[in-house]
Automatic annotation (TrEMBL):
PANTHER family noted in UniProt: ABC-TYPE MACROLIDE FAMILY EXPORT SYSTEM PERMEASE COMPONENT 2 (PTHR30572:SF18), MEMBRANE COMPONENT OF TRANSPORTER-RELATED (PTHR30572)
Pfam families associated with the record: FtsX, MacB_PCD
Membrane topology type: Multi-pass membrane protein
Localization in the cell: Cell membrane
Organism annotation: Chryseobacterium kimseyorum
Membrane spanning stretches: 21-41, 290-311, 336-361, 381-404, 425-448, 689-713, 741-760, 775-798
Residue span, ABC3 transporter permease C-terminal domain: 295-408, 692-804
Name of the featured protein: ABC transporter permease
UniProt entry keywords in alphabetical sequence: Cell membrane, Membrane, Transmembrane, Transmembrane helix
Coiled-coil stretches: none
InterPro entries: ABC3_permease_C, MacB_PCD, Macrolide_Exporter_MacB
Length: 812
């Protein structure tokens, strides 16, 4: 029986070779797109899954009315909460920033690696494999350090397992040697807890009363909770505790506590924090984008299934008599359904194999696009996708199987089933759904393109072309070391041929990190602005970036008052203070970074973007860096290059940097304009992916439309022959065969409009500066789909007008 079913299946594949190829191609592409996005999602979900205590360890996050949700906590919040609440078994601190590396040295070797500044209990929370030494008291004080196997190999070579007891030190003055107490292996599995070395967090040593301040948010903390803990209830207790402490702190500063901005504490299990952290998290992934793409890829898979269903039901007339005959000779409906399901499964299985081959070919480029190293080595992926294949085959095969098996022998054996109206409604409905999805993708793709183009072409308020940024690797926060180094390097680099100008600042354009503080109106201290960016800058900063002033003037070194307490405000700052550009000049403010010292506004600079154009311009206050604590934060050079010999200038700067500025450190630089472009890189990637998905959708839809129209027009060839015999011209015949498809297209596109509007309106809400919802993408989707539908269908319709009349009328 199975052998007979297979013979019938392959005969039908051969007779309908075009629709078979289109089905396999469409399903392969649909499955490939879905698999690529699915494995990205699974890779993001796999972080920390190797940790046996993953469901009991929680990241502690704090929501503050002024600063939003933060990944950092205060030391008292972690330590006191453990003592106060019995649900908390223990806590640990693990400050690890993957993008920040430091130099660790022995007498003759060095390693440039990521650090983790932690508390001693970190090894009880995270499953590092011990290679040598002991984790007990491994970082109990600042004289001890644990290093990774990779770091140990770099520093000690083949003797790395015997390095316990030897000393290493961080590069820089006033650094004490540290004894290696343990060598550990970083987890092979996906984890954010991978570091070149782990040492005691410096904030836990000699930090005065800072560690008694409940609002000193400086530590990335984790709680280990007891089994059965009611997490939501504990969050409420922690939030109440933090709100109480914030109120006490506000009263101590002589400020009125705002109960509407009271603290909220969130606990996110580390098994989910990669995607579900409330704050920016620790190396947090972009869950929203992944889920959007996953949903869209599922739509593409659905579109492929629709093609399969539509083509199978369209072939019904060719198999109606076969079904009728088999029923007459005793075949049951259940056997017919199984036979048709088998035929569908064979097509799906072939497409599944081809899809995996395509994934394997595309994966290197996909990894490069995502900046990841995803591999097809998870057996669960094959299990899950195998189950998906079976479910997909059942769903996509069951509708045509039920439809075909339901034919009545008396009807199918009497005459030409092709002229019956049975099944027309089903094919039209499925074709409509297919075109709705296609129109939805066209609308979304065009609007995303418009928004991203709007961002990339927006006036940024500064000119960053031919400017490179070099961050100091070797820094020290004592004795004004950074400012002295900045001045020395600035003087040296300015002598290099091809360097036109140099400036510096604490906050760099496009880097996404900012020092912020609250600022009060000196005349009315109840008027306060939170999250004001602290703009410590070099004197030539505004001239360097060709920024324009709305009123007032720049800082002038000839006036002592300018360098002592003069400040420049941006337009966003004065608007929040309730001033216009002229009223702001001469006004005095109390900045939070200098206690009881008034700053006088001498100029208002026009708004410019520093952290990306998808967010509003933050309020900023600028002052010369050499007046306060900012000296030790000047850790970069921003260098303007002559356009005549950019490559030569870069080589000369590189040689100076590697031989004189920071020998032993890697040389890294970024162009300011390219670095700023990274702030909307996520949205450019969304644009690219959506464009690719749009092309895939259109190809699948048009292939399906071509195959469907071919089958349906072939069923009407006798009608065409009769019309030609009666004198109908080719234009009339083509229009008669095409107009039904065009009507379905108009209805489908009209239905897609509200879905496209809702989806894009939700997507645009993420942008502080967004386009108004345009009308023309909706009109263009209608026009483009009508044209494509007409071209695809009319091509086959025109071919139908060239038939041999004798062939179709000789038996009439």
């Amino acid at each position: 029986m199975i052998k007979n079913w297979l013979k019938i299946a392959f005969i039908n594949y051969r007779n309908n070779w075009l629709s078979t190829i289109i089905n396999i191609l469409g399903l392969s592409v649909g499955l490939c797109v879905f698999l690529l996005i699915y494995i990205h999602w699974q890779d993001e979900k796999s972080y920390e899954q190797h940790n046996a205590n993953k469901d009991n360890i929680f990241l502690v996050e704090n929501k503050n009315g002024d600063f939003g949700t933060m990944v950092v906590s205060s030391f008292p919040e972690l330590s006191v909460s453990k003592e106060k609440f019995s649900e908390i078994e223990d806590y640990t601190i693990a400050n690890i920033w993957g993008g920040y590396k430091v130099r660790l040295m022995t007498a003759d070797k060095s390693a440039f690696v990521t650090s983790c500044r932690a508390s001693d209990s970190v090894f009880d929370f995270f499953p590092f494999e011990k290679i040598a030494g002991s984790f007990k008291n491994a970082i109990s004080d600042k004289s001890k350090i644990a290093i990774s196997e990779e770091t140990a190999k770099t520093l000690f070579g083949d003797e790395y397992k015997n390095c316990v007891g030897k000393t290493v030190s961080l590069d820089g003055p006033n650094t004490e040697p540290m004894v290696v107490t343990a060598v550990y292996k970083n987890p092979d599995a996906n984890s954010v807890f991978k570091a070149g070395f782990i040492m005691r967090n410096q904030g836990l040593e000699g930090n005065g009363n800072a560690n008694t301040q409940w609002t000193n948010y400086s530590y990335v903390g984790y709680f280990k909770l007891k089994q059965g803990t009611d997490v939501k209830d504990l969050e409420k207790k922690l939030s109440a505790l933090m709100a109480e402490q914030e109120k006490i702190a506000a009263e101590g500063w002589g400020e009125k506590y705002d109960a509407t901005k009271k603290a909220e504490v969130s606990l996110t299990p580390i098994s989910k924090m990669k995607l579900d952290a409330k704050s920016e998290g620790v190396s947090k992934g972009d869950k929203k984008s992944i889920m959007i793409l996953l949903s869209l890829s599922a739509l593409i898979l659905l579109l492929s299934g629709i093609n399969l269903i539509n083509l199978k039901t369209a072939q019904a007339s060719q198999r109606a008599k076969e079904v009728g005959v088999r029923k007459v000779v005793g075949s049951t409906r259940s056997k017919l359904i199984l036979q048709f399901l088998l035929e569908t499964f064979i097509i799906c299985f072939v497409a599944y194999i081809i899809a995996f081959a395509m994934v394997e070919l595309l994966l290197p480029g996909y990894n490069k696009f995502l900046n990841k190293e995803i591999k097809l080595n998870d057996h669960n992926l094959f299990v899950y996708t195998g189950l998906l294949l079976i479910v997909f085959s059942l769903i996509s095969g069951l509708i045509p199987a039920l439809y075909l098996s339901n034919f009545k022998p008396i009807n199918t054996l009497k005459g030409n089933f092709a002229r019956s109206k049975s099944g027309v409604w089903l094919r039209n409905s499925i074709l409509t759904l297919q075109l709705i999805i296609s129109s939805f993708f066209i609308i979304c793709s065009l609007i995303i393109h418009l928004q991203v183009s709007y961002m990339t072409s927006k006036d940024l308020g500064f000119k960053g072309d031919q400017v490179i940024h070099i961050q100091f690797k070797k820094t020290d926060w004592q004795n004004d070391f950074n400012s002295k180094k900045y001045i020395r390097l600035k003087n040296e680099v300015s002598k290099i041929a091809g360097v036109e100008d140099i400036t510096g600042s604490v906050n760099t354009i496009g880097w996404g990190m900012s020092n912020t503080s609250s600022v009060k109106n000196a005349l009315d201290t109840t008027k306060s602005i939170p999250n004001v960016i602290v703009g410590a800058i070099e004197y030539n900063y505004f001239k360097f970036y060709k920024m324009r002033f709305a009123s007032g003037r720049d800082i002038d070194v000839r006036f002592a008052s300018d360098t002592i307490n003069g400040t420049i405000a941006n337009e966003s700052f004065i608007k929040k203070m309730g001033w216009n550009k002229d009223q702001a000049i001469g006004k005095e403010v109390f900045p939070g970074w200098e206690e009881k010292k008034k700053y006088k506004i001498i100029g208002v600079v026009k708004d410019f973007y520093i952290n990306g154009v998808d967010k509003p311009v933050e309020p900023m206050l600028f002052f010369n860096y050499d007046r306060n604590w900012a000296k030790n934060n000047m850790a970069n050079l921003q260098i303007k290059l002559s356009k005549d010999d950019i490559n030569g200038t870069l080589e000369r700067i590189k040689e100076f940097w590697l031989t004189k500025a920071e020998p032993g450190y890697p040389y890294e630089y970024q162009f300011i304009d390219k670095q700023f472009a990274k702030t909307f890189e996520k949205f450019q990637k969304q644009q690219t992916l959506f464009t690719i998905l749009n092309i895939v959708v259109l190809v699948i839809a048009l292939l399906g439309l071509f195959a469907l129209s071919s089958l349906l027009i072939e069923q009407k060839l006798k009608d065409v022959a009769i019309k030609k015999t009666l004198g109908a011209d080719e234009r009339t015949i083509v229009w008669d065969l095409t107009k039904r498809f065009l009507l379905i297209c108009v209805i489908a596109v009209a239905i897609s409009f509200p879905f496209g509007y809702y989806a894009m309106n939700e997507w645009l809400k993420d942008f502080a500066y967004r386009i108004d919802m345009p009308v023309w993408p909706y009109a263009l989707s209608m026009i483009s789909l009508l044209i494509l539908t007409f071209v695809v269908v009319s091509f086959k319709a025109y071919r139908a007008t060239k038939i041999n009349l004798v062939k179709y009328l000789k038996y009439e």
